[in-house]
Design a protein that fits this description.
The complex is a heterodimer of chains A (about 300) and B (about 300). Chain A is built from twelve helices and no strands. In chain A, helix 3 packs across helix 4, helix 4 runs parallel beside helix 12 and helix 6 runs antiparallel to helix 7. The longest helix of chain A is centred in the middle third of the chain and has 37 residues. By secondary structure, chain B is mainly alpha-helical. Chain B is built from eleven helices and no strands. Classes of the chains: A mainly alpha (about 300), B mainly alpha (about 300). The interface between A and B is large, with 41 and 45 residues.
Chain lengths: ~300, ~300
């Protein structure tokens, strides 16, 4: 008589779940975070593609339509500034700059923070104390003033703005990464790697750093809004990118000067920046909830 | 405690020295000298001028002179405003910034702590939800967007308050800037206070106090408040740094004659010595605030060992 073969434990057990799959499911259940992600992707896409589709160029003057409010005529949906430049296109181009600075500065500060934190945590001892001392020093400095100083002395260059912002945005990451590295360092697989003679730099980059990924992703998403905000503060103070190039901070600055007569000049870029920051914050929260094992 | 205080004070020296040195060197890298102008100055006059300001000395000696002057509280001469020393400019601007900053910080801390307690005790009530929405707005809408909003509502629509200016510190001109700064800080203080009090209230020693039959007011004031304040105090240091940023924006936006406005003007005028002096001064203030926060933290938290 044929009898059914008992299923092995492997077949009965639920399919294996990776922590990243878990995290993705948790993230997808967080409605605010998903919506924020969608909005941010949309803003980025519109900023990227929009200027090509617009009939106006960001530095083109429409001599017949200077300083008018939002209108369907000639497709000035956001109105124009007093030089007759279309505000919609300028907002999109400004968004390109703001978001590019955001992405680049975040990237630089993440790389710096991870390298700094993991080396300090892994090497330990006097070197660690010294490296963390530098982080402490940078923490206590009112970075905006140093940024102002750097821009004053070195000039208003796009990449310089990126570097200045990155230089003061990596310390959180370095601290967190160092803490995490300290706990990873005492794990058995590191001891094993040591025992078979893997050189320190390889242990750091192929065993420690990959295991830091979760926390790095969380802090990266938390860094983004701060970096975008710093760029717009610098621009708002007149220390960012130069005319006719623009960014959200520059547009808000220009709009603030004519707020009484042409309020649309400040509210459109202001709304774009605020919406982006809001979404970036929600996205960061969502990432943390999804990836932080403590919240499980 | 004294030993701890002394150690913390000594620990601030490297920070200050690093900032001063780096900024000084950056300043020195700039092309052009202070006496390069349209009008040619004769070589003899130039030599005299340079000797007066010690510009003829090697860099390290100039640097030591600068440090020495700093120790005597002298920030040097302004690069752009002839006849004005940086000290004169600072003396005019500092009271404005101190008033705006101090007042807003005071309001933010007191109101933030009270509102935080209120929200924590009524968790998930309408009070709590309203406060959290408010904190979210204050926390993520940038100051230079809240500023225009305030001006639009209170100055342009309601005509209650002026939209900017200082007018020798008349109270009507102070209200909006202080409100703007206070709102931003209040949202951080309120959020942290609420979170930490909720956490403290769920711990076992509060349960024991409740079991003993103590009234809620005693539990909160006597037992919960002190541990709940620790995270609030620890957030004040970073908050002070970020309010410097917010204050610069606020002063620029409301055209107040404070330090922030001075540094932004100095930056656009390329008034190097003024910018350097202000950076040094504000860093000193920031380091001092951080030091005070650390000491307050040590007083509040018995777990910190001196």
């Amino acid at each position: 008589m044929p009898y059914s073969i008992p299923k092995s434990a492997i077949e009965i057990a639920p399919p294996p779940r990776s922590p990243w799959l878990d995290a993705r499911q948790r993230f997808m259940r967080n409605r605010a975070a998903v919506i924020s992600l969608a909005i941010m992707v949309m803003i980025a896409l519109v900023c990227l593609v929009g200027p090509w589709l617009s009939p106006h160029a960001y530095d083109d003057t429409d001599w017949n339509q200077m300083g008018i409010g939002p209108t369907w005529d000639h497709w000035h949906l956001f109105g124009t500034d007093e030089l007759g430049r279309d505000l919609l296109v300028r907002t999109l181009i400004g968004g390109r700059i703001s978001l590019t600075v955001g992405v680049l500065a975040t990237l630089v500060s993440v790389l710096l923070g991870v390298a700094w934190g993991s080396v300090a945590g892994f090497v330990g001892g006097k070197i660690d104390a010294f490296m963390m001392r530098i982080v402490d020093i940078l923490y206590a400095i009112p970075y905006l003033l140093i940024a102002i100083m750097m821009v004053t002395i070195l000039g208003r260059d796009f990449y310089l703005v990126v570097l200045t912002i990155s230089a003061f945005s990596w310390m959180d990451m370095a601290r967190v990464v160092r803490g995490q590295t300290l706990s990873i360092k005492s794990k058995e697989y590191i001891e094993a790697a040591r025992a078979i003679g893997v050189p320190t730099y390889r242990i750091i980059f192929s065993h420690v750093v990959p295991n830091l990924l979760g926390i790095v992703v969380i802090y990266t998403s938390i860094t983004v809004p701060g970096v975008i905000l710093t760029e717009s503060v610098l621009s708002f103070l007149g220390l960012g990118v130069q005319e006719p190039m623009t960014s959200w901070g520059v547009l808000i600055h220009d709009g603030a000067n004519v707020m009484e007569s042409s309020p649309w000049m400040i509210w459109f870029p202001g709304a774009a920046l605020t919406l982006t920051l809001y979404c970036a914050n929600f996205l960061g929260d969502g990432m943390r909830d999804a990836l932080d094992p403590k919240t499980r | 405690m004294w030993k701890y205080t002394l150690r913390r004070i000594l620990a601030t020296l490297p920070t200050l020295l690093t900032v001063i040195t780096v900024c000084y060197l950056m300043l020195h890298m700039t092309p052009g000298g202070p006496f390069d102008s349209e009008r040619k100055v004769s070589a003899a006059v130039l030599a005299n001028l340079q000797a007066k300001y010690h510009l003829d000395l090697p860099l390290w000696q100039q640097y030591l002179f600068y440090l020495n002057n700093l120790l005597h509280g002298d920030l040097g001469a302004s690069f752009r405003y002839a006849d004005w020393s940086v000290n004169d400019l600072v003396a005019k601007a500092l009271p404005v910034s101190l008033l705006i900053g101090g007042l807003s910080m005071l309001i933010a801390v007191i109101a933030g702590v009270l509102l935080g307690i209120w929200a924590a005790l009524r968790q998930n009530s309408w009070v709590d939800h309203t406060l959290m929405v408010f904190c979210n707005i204050g926390g993520s809408v940038p100051s230079f967007v809240i500023g225009p909003l305030l001006v639009t509502v209170f100055a342009l629509w309601l005509h209650w308050l002026p939209s900017g200016g200082w007018n020798e510190g008349e109270w009507r001109f102070v209200v909006l800037p202080v409100t703007l700064l206070a709102v931003i800080n209040l949202s951080t203080v309120g959020r942290v206070m609420r979170g930490s009090l909720i956490e403290v209230l769920s711990s076992t020693f509060i349960l024991a106090a409740r079991a003993k039959g103590l009234p809620v007011s005693t539990i909160v004031l006597r037992h919960a408040l002190r541990p709940a304040l620790i995270p609030v105090v620890s957030v004040l240091g970073p908050l002070a740094i970020s309010s410097i940023t917010a204050a610069v924006v606020t002063e620029t936006w409301f055209s107040l004659p404070g330090l922030g406005k001075l540094i932004v003007n100095g930056a656009s005028n390329r008034d190097y010595t003024l910018v350097l002096g202000l950076v040094v001064l504000v860093t000193f203030v920031a380091v001092l605030l951080n030091l005070l926060v650390d000491l307050a933290y040590a007083l509040l938290d018995p777990k910190i060992r001196y």
